[in-house]
Amino acid sequence: CQQATIPPAAAAAAPAPHPRESAKAGMRTRRESKAPRLPRDAARKGPPAAAAAAQPRVEPHEYMLSLYRTYSIAEKLGINASFFQSSKAANTITSFVDRGRDDLSPSALRRQKYLFDVSTLADKEELVGAELRLFRKAPGDHFSKAQTGLAHLQVSPCLSGRLLDSKALDLQKEASSRADGDWEVFDVWQALQPRQPRKQQQQQQLCLELRAVGGTRTHGPGQMLDLRSLGLGRGARPQQEKALLVVFTRSRLKNLFAELRQERENQPGHPSAHALSRAPAAHGHLRFQSRRTRR
Amino acid sequence: TAYNNRHGKRHGKKARLRCSKKALHVNFKELGWDDWIIAPLEYEAYHCEGVCDFPLRSHLEPTNHAIIQTLMNSMDPGSTPPSCCVPTKLTPISILYTDAGNNVVYKQYEDMVVESCGCR
Protein backbone atom coordinates (compact mmCIF):
# COMPACT_ATOMS: atom_id res chain seq x y z
CA CYS A 1 0.00 0.00 0.00
CA GLN A 2 2.90 2.32 0.75
CA GLN A 3 4.17 1.71 -2.76
CA ALA A 4 1.39 3.93 -4.06
CA THR A 5 2.99 6.96 -2.48
CA ILE A 6 6.42 6.41 -4.00
CA PRO A 7 7.21 7.37 -7.58
CA PRO A 8 7.80 4.23 -9.68
CA ALA A 9 11.32 2.97 -10.16
CA ALA A 10 11.08 3.84 -13.84
CA ALA A 11 10.59 7.46 -12.91
CA ALA A 12 13.69 7.34 -10.77
CA ALA A 13 15.70 5.81 -13.60
CA ALA A 14 14.53 8.46 -16.05
CA PRO A 15 16.16 11.89 -16.08
CA ALA A 16 15.50 13.40 -12.70
CA PRO A 17 12.21 15.28 -12.76
CA HIS A 18 11.89 18.67 -11.24
CA PRO A 19 11.49 18.13 -7.50
CA ARG A 20 8.16 19.90 -7.58
CA GLU A 21 6.97 17.46 -10.25
CA SER A 22 8.24 14.42 -8.35
CA ALA A 23 6.50 15.68 -5.27
CA LYS A 24 3.29 15.94 -7.25
CA ALA A 25 3.68 12.45 -8.68
CA GLY A 26 4.22 10.61 -5.45
CA MET A 27 3.72 12.87 -2.53
CA ARG A 28 1.82 16.04 -2.16
CA THR A 29 3.43 19.14 -0.80
CA ARG A 30 1.69 20.91 2.02
CA ARG A 31 0.31 23.39 -0.49
CA GLU A 32 -1.37 20.69 -2.56
CA SER A 33 -2.59 18.53 0.27
CA LYS A 34 -4.15 21.42 2.06
CA ALA A 35 -5.70 23.17 -0.92
CA PRO A 36 -9.11 21.45 -1.02
CA ARG A 37 -9.65 22.00 2.67
CA LEU A 38 -8.95 25.68 2.71
CA PRO A 39 -12.36 27.14 1.91
CA ARG A 40 -14.12 24.90 4.40
CA ASP A 41 -11.55 25.43 7.13
CA ALA A 42 -11.38 29.14 6.55
CA ALA A 43 -15.16 29.41 6.71
CA ARG A 44 -15.43 27.31 9.83
CA LYS A 45 -12.43 28.43 11.76
CA GLY A 46 -12.27 32.07 10.71
CA PRO A 47 -9.11 34.17 10.84
CA PRO A 48 -6.66 31.74 12.56
CA ALA A 49 -7.05 29.06 9.90
CA ALA A 50 -7.04 31.61 7.13
CA ALA A 51 -3.88 33.14 8.56
CA ALA A 52 -2.25 29.71 8.74
CA ALA A 53 -3.25 29.10 5.15
CA ALA A 54 -1.60 32.33 4.10
CA GLN A 55 1.78 31.18 5.46
CA PRO A 56 4.28 30.02 2.86
CA ARG A 57 4.47 26.26 2.72
CA VAL A 58 7.46 24.04 2.46
CA GLU A 59 8.72 22.61 -0.77
CA PRO A 60 10.55 19.44 0.28
CA HIS A 61 14.13 19.40 -0.86
CA GLU A 62 14.98 16.72 -3.42
CA TYR A 63 17.65 15.37 -1.07
CA MET A 64 15.04 14.72 1.64
CA LEU A 65 12.61 13.14 -0.83
CA SER A 66 15.38 10.90 -2.11
CA LEU A 67 16.34 9.98 1.45
CA TYR A 68 12.74 9.09 2.24
CA ARG A 69 12.35 7.00 -0.93
CA THR A 70 15.56 5.07 -0.34
CA TYR A 71 14.95 4.30 3.30
CA SER A 72 11.28 3.43 2.93
CA ILE A 73 12.09 1.02 0.10
CA ALA A 74 14.82 -0.53 2.25
CA GLU A 75 12.28 -0.88 5.03
CA LYS A 76 9.95 -2.83 2.78
CA LEU A 77 12.83 -5.15 2.00
CA GLY A 78 13.31 -5.67 5.72
CA ILE A 79 16.52 -3.63 5.92
CA ASN A 80 16.80 -1.28 8.87
CA ALA A 81 17.52 2.16 7.40
CA SER A 82 19.62 3.11 10.42
CA PHE A 83 22.18 0.52 9.28
CA PHE A 84 22.97 2.62 6.19
CA GLN A 85 26.26 4.40 6.50
CA SER A 86 24.67 7.55 5.10
CA SER A 87 22.14 7.61 7.92
CA LYS A 88 24.91 7.67 10.56
CA ALA A 89 22.73 5.34 12.68
CA ALA A 90 20.20 8.15 13.09
CA ASN A 91 16.47 7.63 13.15
CA THR A 92 15.68 11.30 12.59
CA ILE A 93 17.15 13.48 9.85
CA THR A 94 16.21 17.16 9.87
CA SER A 95 16.92 19.55 7.03
CA PHE A 96 17.36 23.29 7.52
CA VAL A 97 17.37 25.58 4.52
CA ASP A 98 19.81 28.49 4.43
CA ARG A 99 18.27 31.80 5.53
CA GLY A 100 21.32 33.92 4.80
CA ARG A 101 20.95 37.07 2.72
CA ASP A 102 22.87 37.72 -0.46
CA ASP A 103 25.76 40.04 -0.63
CA LEU A 104 24.74 42.20 -3.57
CA SER A 105 27.95 44.17 -3.80
CA PRO A 106 29.71 43.73 -7.17
CA SER A 107 33.04 43.16 -5.51
CA ALA A 108 34.54 39.72 -5.29
CA LEU A 109 32.84 37.42 -2.80
CA ARG A 110 35.59 36.21 -0.48
CA ARG A 111 33.43 34.91 2.36
CA GLN A 112 29.85 33.74 2.46
CA LYS A 113 27.74 33.25 5.56
CA TYR A 114 25.04 30.59 5.80
CA LEU A 115 22.38 30.96 8.49
CA PHE A 116 20.22 28.15 9.84
CA ASP A 117 17.51 28.36 12.47
CA VAL A 118 18.16 25.24 14.52
CA SER A 119 15.92 26.20 17.44
CA THR A 120 13.56 23.30 16.72
CA LEU A 121 16.27 20.74 17.45
CA ALA A 122 15.22 19.06 20.66
CA ASP A 123 17.77 18.63 23.41
CA LYS A 124 16.35 15.21 24.11
CA GLU A 125 17.73 13.99 20.82
CA GLU A 126 21.23 12.63 20.57
CA LEU A 127 23.17 14.37 17.83
CA VAL A 128 25.06 11.87 15.70
CA GLY A 129 26.08 13.98 12.72
CA ALA A 130 25.59 17.16 10.73
CA GLU A 131 26.37 18.02 7.13
CA LEU A 132 26.43 21.28 5.23
CA ARG A 133 25.40 20.64 1.64
CA LEU A 134 26.29 23.37 -0.85
CA PHE A 135 25.31 23.28 -4.51
CA ARG A 136 28.20 24.38 -6.67
CA LYS A 137 27.24 25.39 -10.16
CA ALA A 138 29.47 24.35 -13.02
CA PRO A 139 31.97 27.07 -13.92
CA GLY A 140 30.77 29.21 -16.82
CA ASP A 141 32.71 30.91 -19.58
CA HIS A 142 33.93 33.46 -17.12
CA PHE A 143 35.78 30.68 -15.40
CA SER A 144 39.00 30.80 -17.29
CA LYS A 145 40.58 27.57 -18.34
CA ALA A 146 43.82 29.23 -17.55
CA GLN A 147 43.07 28.75 -13.89
CA THR A 148 45.17 25.99 -12.53
CA GLY A 149 46.06 24.55 -9.22
CA LEU A 150 43.88 23.81 -6.26
CA ALA A 151 41.21 25.68 -4.40
CA HIS A 152 40.52 24.76 -0.83
CA LEU A 153 36.93 25.26 0.25
CA GLN A 154 36.90 25.83 3.98
CA VAL A 155 33.95 25.91 6.34
CA SER A 156 34.13 27.34 9.83
CA PRO A 157 31.70 28.80 12.37
CA CYS A 158 31.12 32.55 11.89
CA LEU A 159 33.38 34.75 14.00
CA SER A 160 35.69 31.83 14.60
CA GLY A 161 38.79 30.68 12.82
CA ARG A 162 38.17 27.06 13.86
CA LEU A 163 38.11 24.97 10.70
CA LEU A 164 35.25 22.48 10.62
CA ASP A 165 35.91 20.83 7.28
CA SER A 166 37.58 21.53 3.94
CA LYS A 167 37.49 20.23 0.38
CA ALA A 168 40.15 20.54 -2.29
CA LEU A 169 39.04 21.40 -5.84
CA ASP A 170 41.20 20.82 -8.90
CA LEU A 171 40.47 24.00 -10.87
CA GLN A 172 41.82 22.68 -14.16
CA LYS A 173 39.64 19.60 -13.93
CA GLU A 174 36.67 21.73 -12.94
CA ALA A 175 37.07 23.97 -16.00
CA SER A 176 36.78 21.00 -18.36
CA SER A 177 33.83 19.52 -16.49
CA ARG A 178 30.53 19.47 -18.39
CA ALA A 179 28.22 18.74 -15.47
CA ASP A 180 25.63 21.37 -14.50
CA GLY A 181 26.86 21.35 -10.96
CA ASP A 182 27.27 19.17 -7.95
CA TRP A 183 26.78 19.16 -4.22
CA GLU A 184 29.73 19.71 -1.95
CA VAL A 185 29.24 18.09 1.43
CA PHE A 186 31.02 19.29 4.57
CA ASP A 187 31.03 17.67 7.97
CA VAL A 188 29.91 20.37 10.41
CA TRP A 189 29.03 18.17 13.36
CA GLN A 190 31.49 20.05 15.57
CA ALA A 191 29.59 23.29 15.03
CA LEU A 192 26.60 21.87 16.89
CA GLN A 193 28.69 20.47 19.73
CA PRO A 194 28.45 20.95 22.63
CA ARG A 195 24.75 21.66 22.67
CA GLN A 196 23.50 24.48 24.85
CA PRO A 197 20.82 23.95 27.51
CA ARG A 198 17.31 24.05 26.12
CA LYS A 199 16.43 27.56 27.37
CA GLN A 200 19.45 29.04 25.64
CA GLN A 201 18.87 26.88 22.58
CA GLN A 202 15.58 28.61 21.73
CA GLN A 203 15.82 30.94 18.70
CA GLN A 204 19.37 29.79 18.14
CA GLN A 205 20.85 30.47 14.74
CA LEU A 206 23.73 28.45 13.43
CA CYS A 207 26.03 30.57 11.32
CA LEU A 208 28.63 28.92 9.10
CA GLU A 209 31.16 30.69 6.93
CA LEU A 210 32.62 29.49 3.65
CA ARG A 211 35.81 30.71 2.06
CA ALA A 212 38.00 29.46 -0.78
CA VAL A 213 41.73 29.63 -0.59
CA GLY A 214 43.84 29.22 -3.71
CA GLY A 215 47.00 27.21 -3.89
CA THR A 216 49.05 24.95 -6.10
CA ARG A 217 50.00 21.35 -5.68
CA THR A 218 53.55 22.28 -4.99
CA HIS A 219 53.06 25.48 -3.04
CA GLY A 220 51.07 26.03 0.09
CA PRO A 221 47.75 27.92 0.43
CA GLY A 222 47.62 31.35 -1.16
CA GLN A 223 45.11 34.14 -1.57
CA MET A 224 41.37 33.97 -1.00
CA LEU A 225 39.36 33.30 -4.17
CA ASP A 226 36.09 34.74 -5.41
CA LEU A 227 33.33 32.26 -4.44
CA ARG A 228 31.13 33.39 -7.35
CA SER A 229 33.76 32.38 -9.87
CA LEU A 230 33.80 28.92 -8.28
CA GLY A 231 30.02 28.57 -8.75
CA LEU A 232 29.23 29.20 -5.09
CA GLY A 233 27.47 32.55 -5.41
CA ARG A 234 24.09 32.54 -3.73
CA GLY A 235 22.32 35.07 -5.95
CA ALA A 236 18.88 34.05 -7.36
CA ARG A 237 19.11 30.42 -6.36
CA PRO A 238 15.96 28.31 -6.65
CA GLN A 239 14.77 26.61 -3.46
CA GLN A 240 16.22 23.27 -4.56
CA GLU A 241 19.71 24.71 -4.94
CA LYS A 242 19.83 26.54 -1.63
CA ALA A 243 22.35 25.43 0.95
CA LEU A 244 21.07 22.77 3.28
CA LEU A 245 22.09 21.85 6.80
CA VAL A 246 21.25 18.22 7.44
CA VAL A 247 21.26 17.13 11.07
CA PHE A 248 21.27 13.46 12.05
CA THR A 249 19.85 12.60 15.45
CA ARG A 250 18.76 9.58 17.39
CA SER A 251 15.44 10.36 18.95
CA ARG A 252 14.57 8.70 22.22
CA LEU A 253 10.93 9.64 21.80
CA LYS A 254 9.45 6.81 19.84
CA ASN A 255 5.83 7.86 19.53
CA LEU A 256 3.94 10.33 17.42
CA PHE A 257 2.67 12.42 20.29
CA ALA A 258 5.65 14.77 20.35
CA GLU A 259 5.02 15.87 16.76
CA LEU A 260 1.27 16.02 17.29
CA ARG A 261 1.64 18.16 20.37
CA GLN A 262 4.07 20.39 18.52
CA GLU A 263 1.64 20.68 15.61
CA ARG A 264 -1.21 21.53 17.95
CA GLU A 265 0.84 24.24 19.63
CA ASN A 266 1.86 25.56 16.26
CA GLN A 267 -1.63 25.81 14.79
CA PRO A 268 -4.15 26.41 17.54
CA GLY A 269 -7.03 27.05 15.15
CA HIS A 270 -6.46 24.06 12.95
CA PRO A 271 -9.06 21.26 12.76
CA SER A 272 -6.51 18.48 13.28
CA ALA A 273 -5.39 20.27 16.40
CA HIS A 274 -8.99 20.38 17.52
CA ALA A 275 -9.40 16.70 16.72
CA LEU A 276 -6.27 15.91 18.69
CA SER A 277 -7.27 18.02 21.64
CA ARG A 278 -10.73 16.51 21.54
CA ALA A 279 -9.58 12.91 21.31
CA PRO A 280 -8.15 12.42 24.80
CA ALA A 281 -11.01 14.41 26.31
CA ALA A 282 -13.58 12.28 24.51
CA HIS A 283 -11.79 9.15 25.59
CA GLY A 284 -11.72 10.38 29.16
CA HIS A 285 -15.39 11.24 29.01
CA LEU A 286 -16.30 7.74 27.80
CA ARG A 287 -14.18 6.16 30.49
CA PHE A 288 -15.82 8.34 33.09
CA GLN A 289 -19.26 7.53 31.71
CA SER A 290 -18.62 3.76 31.76
CA ARG A 291 -17.25 4.00 35.29
CA ARG A 292 -20.37 5.90 36.33
CA THR A 293 -22.61 3.32 34.65
CA ARG A 294 -20.77 0.54 36.43
CA ARG A 295 -21.17 2.32 39.72
CA THR B 1 -16.62 -29.19 22.66
CA ALA B 2 -20.29 -29.21 21.68
CA TYR B 3 -19.54 -26.90 18.74
CA ASN B 4 -16.52 -28.75 17.45
CA ASN B 5 -16.85 -31.04 14.49
CA ARG B 6 -14.47 -33.90 13.80
CA HIS B 7 -11.92 -31.51 12.30
CA GLY B 8 -11.91 -29.50 15.47
CA LYS B 9 -13.51 -26.48 13.79
CA ARG B 10 -16.55 -24.62 14.98
CA HIS B 11 -19.66 -23.94 12.95
CA GLY B 12 -22.80 -21.92 13.39
CA LYS B 13 -23.48 -18.60 15.02
CA LYS B 14 -21.25 -19.23 18.01
CA ALA B 15 -18.14 -19.79 15.91
CA ARG B 16 -15.76 -16.93 16.63
CA LEU B 17 -12.64 -15.87 14.83
CA ARG B 18 -9.42 -16.77 16.48
CA CYS B 19 -6.91 -14.05 17.19
CA SER B 20 -5.21 -13.05 13.96
CA LYS B 21 -3.86 -10.10 11.95
CA LYS B 22 -6.46 -8.11 10.01
CA ALA B 23 -6.23 -5.24 7.55
CA LEU B 24 -6.16 -1.67 8.81
CA HIS B 25 -5.58 0.88 6.11
CA VAL B 26 -4.48 4.22 7.53
CA ASN B 27 -5.08 7.33 5.48
CA PHE B 28 -3.33 10.33 7.01
CA LYS B 29 -5.38 12.70 4.88
CA GLU B 30 -8.59 11.36 6.38
CA LEU B 31 -7.07 11.82 9.83
CA GLY B 32 -6.37 15.43 8.94
CA TRP B 33 -2.62 14.86 9.32
CA ASP B 34 -1.74 15.64 5.72
CA ASP B 35 -1.01 19.20 6.80
CA TRP B 36 2.20 18.05 8.47
CA ILE B 37 2.93 14.65 6.96
CA ILE B 38 4.41 14.86 3.46
CA ALA B 39 4.77 11.14 2.86
CA PRO B 40 3.42 8.53 3.02
CA LEU B 41 -0.15 9.75 2.87
CA GLU B 42 -1.43 6.23 3.52
CA TYR B 43 -0.11 2.87 4.63
CA GLU B 44 -1.21 -0.55 5.83
CA ALA B 45 -0.95 -0.70 9.62
CA TYR B 46 -2.94 -3.93 10.25
CA HIS B 47 -4.60 -4.68 13.56
CA CYS B 48 -5.23 -7.70 15.77
CA GLU B 49 -8.68 -9.11 16.14
CA GLY B 50 -10.23 -12.31 17.39
CA VAL B 51 -10.57 -14.32 20.52
CA CYS B 52 -7.94 -15.98 22.64
CA ASP B 53 -9.83 -19.01 23.83
CA PHE B 54 -8.82 -22.43 25.02
CA PRO B 55 -6.79 -24.16 23.69
CA LEU B 56 -4.33 -21.47 22.64
CA ARG B 57 -2.37 -22.21 19.48
CA SER B 58 1.42 -22.08 19.73
CA HIS B 59 1.72 -19.62 16.82
CA LEU B 60 -0.05 -17.06 19.01
CA GLU B 61 3.02 -17.16 21.22
CA PRO B 62 1.08 -16.83 24.46
CA THR B 63 2.84 -15.77 27.62
CA ASN B 64 2.62 -18.16 30.56
CA HIS B 65 0.24 -15.71 32.15
CA ALA B 66 -2.00 -15.75 29.07
CA ILE B 67 -2.08 -19.56 29.18
CA ILE B 68 -3.15 -19.51 32.83
CA GLN B 69 -5.71 -16.76 32.23
CA THR B 70 -7.15 -18.62 29.24
CA LEU B 71 -7.37 -21.82 31.27
CA MET B 72 -9.12 -19.99 34.11
CA ASN B 73 -11.51 -18.42 31.61
CA SER B 74 -12.31 -21.78 30.05
CA MET B 75 -13.17 -23.18 33.48
CA ASP B 76 -15.21 -20.23 34.66
CA PRO B 77 -15.85 -17.47 32.08
CA GLY B 78 -17.55 -15.35 34.73
CA SER B 79 -14.50 -15.16 36.94
CA THR B 80 -11.82 -14.30 34.40
CA PRO B 81 -11.94 -12.68 30.95
CA PRO B 82 -10.08 -14.35 28.10
CA SER B 83 -6.56 -13.13 27.42
CA CYS B 84 -6.16 -10.28 24.94
CA CYS B 85 -5.42 -10.50 21.24
CA VAL B 86 -2.66 -7.92 20.76
CA PRO B 87 0.28 -7.14 18.46
CA THR B 88 3.33 -9.18 19.42
CA LYS B 89 5.66 -7.84 16.75
CA LEU B 90 5.63 -4.38 15.24
CA THR B 91 7.84 -2.79 12.60
CA PRO B 92 8.71 0.83 11.84
CA ILE B 93 7.85 3.03 8.87
CA SER B 94 9.59 6.08 7.47
CA ILE B 95 7.72 9.36 7.59
CA LEU B 96 8.66 12.63 5.94
CA TYR B 97 7.06 15.62 7.61
CA THR B 98 7.43 19.30 8.39
CA ASP B 99 8.20 20.34 11.95
CA ALA B 100 7.12 23.45 13.87
CA GLY B 101 9.87 25.46 12.23
CA ASN B 102 8.76 24.43 8.71
CA ASN B 103 11.86 22.25 8.32
CA VAL B 104 11.48 19.00 6.43
CA VAL B 105 12.23 16.02 8.68
CA TYR B 106 12.69 12.35 7.92
CA LYS B 107 11.94 10.10 10.87
CA GLN B 108 11.74 6.40 11.35
CA TYR B 109 8.77 5.77 13.60
CA GLU B 110 8.88 2.56 15.58
CA ASP B 111 5.94 0.23 16.08
CA MET B 112 3.76 1.50 13.24
CA VAL B 113 2.93 -1.77 11.47
CA VAL B 114 1.64 -4.98 13.06
CA GLU B 115 3.67 -7.93 11.89
CA SER B 116 2.11 -10.59 14.09
CA CYS B 117 -0.60 -10.96 16.70
CA GLY B 118 -0.75 -13.09 19.78
CA CYS B 119 -2.49 -13.65 23.09
CA ARG B 120 -1.21 -11.77 26.12
Describe this structure in words.
The complex is a heterodimer of chains A (295) and B (120). Chain A has 295 residues and is α+β, with helices and mostly antiparallel strands. Chain A contains ten helices and nine strands. In chain A, α4 runs antiparallel to α5 (47-54) and α9 (257-266) crosses α10 (271-294). The two termini of chain A are 45 Å apart. The model of chain A is unreliable at 1-26, 28-54, 198-203 and 277-295 (pLDDT under 50). Chain B is mainly β and 120 residues long. Helix content of chain B is 10%, strand content 38%. Chain B is built from one helix and seven strands; from the N terminus they run βββββαββ. Chain B has one helix at 64-75, and strands at residues 20-22, 25-27, 37-39, 42-44, 47-49, 85-98, 104-119. In chain B, β6 (85-98) and β7 form a beta hairpin. Chain B is elongated. Residues 1-8 of chain B have low confidence and may be disordered. At the A-B interface, α3, α6, β1, α9 and α10 of A face β4, β6 and β7 of B. β1 (92-97) of chain A pairs antiparallel with β7 (104-119) of chain B, so a sheet runs across the interface.
